[in-house]
Target: C-type lectin domain-containing protein
Amino acid sequence: MAKLWSYSLCLLATLCMVQAKPYHEAKHRALLRTGYIYFPGGGYYRLAYKRPIIWAEARRNCQQEGASLAVVNSQQEAENLRTLYLDYGPNNADLQFFASNTTQVPVANATVHIGIHDIFIEGEYLTVRSEPLIATGFVRWKPGFPIGDEQNNCGAFDTAKYILDGPCDAKLPYICEIPEAA
Model:
């Protein structure tokens, strides 16, 4: 009887392990189908560049997908975001769109909305996850930034791998992030 019980538990454990793996793979495939790109050790990122929008709208769009505006946590993640933009961003067919859009910066040094801000207290930068910017592990301001005024409160990232603050009503592409599950 004990042997039968042991065999049953082993079979049940095996079935549970088999069920856990496809769920993760199914989620992975679903994210890839919806435009997210996977970076091992970082997570899933989606670049939205065809219709630049203001920071608050970008944040809301990401939240509606179960994501957040990207928060840069390391030099490697900054490289991932740069690679995402350069490899999956606008191509030659899109350049005419960008040339006619006066709110867009040049593709060579593109700027996108990310999940940092100092909306509540000037100079006190927080992530969209309510963490202090310093806790992210990546504080690499573009020379001349941050701009200490009440008009430049929303975070951005440029493809030179700097963070900066700019007007929240600037219409820019944005990056949504779903961190890799631990």
In short: The two ends are 39 Å apart (CA to CA). Helices lie at 2-33, 55-64, 75-88, 95-100. The longest helix spans residues 2-33. The CA atoms of residues 73 and 135 lie 8 Å apart.
